[in-house]
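User: What would this chain look like folded?
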Amino acid sequence: MPSKQIINDTLGRKKTARIPIIDMAFWPETVKRWEREGLPAGTDLNDYFGLDKFGQYHAHSPRVPEILR
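Assistant: Here's the prediction, encoded as structure tokens.
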């Protein structure tokens, strides 16, 4: 089952074969270390680790108005 279907079904509370496997980000220092240890530079880590792909939204703020102190 493709990642998109697994994620959509999970969010839609439908039965899936497995839960989505994702990671939001990899620390740059960790990736550099892995590359020093033999990981080819530029490797797609989602593919390498078999993670599901998903879109990221960078506006994580709930847009709550700032309270003045």
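Helices lie at 3-11, 28-36, 45-49. If you want, I can go into more detail on any region.
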